[in-house]
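Following up on my earlier thread - several people asked me to post the actual chain instead of describing it. Fair enough. Here it is, all 78 residues.
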Amino acid sequence: MREDAGMMHIETMDDAMAEILSKKSEVERLAIAAGMCKSARIIIRGAVQSEHPDWDVDQVNREIARRISHGLVGNEPT
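Reply from S.P.:
Thanks for posting it. Predicted structure:
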């Protein structure tokens, strides 16, 4: 989901991608999702470390968790 000028847009999968994924097994689809999650964490880690070079590993990991969960985790007091 993305916001453009205050309007919400729900992005949908195109038919070609839906057909490709429908031919994959549950294990293959789960592996794809796990890879996407890992990639997202790597990208977010780089951004957080760039924004906060003074933070230790625990602080960076909490911020990654906070961003991925949209603020639901990672705000616990230290």
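Strands lie at 2-4, 7-9. That should answer part of your original question.
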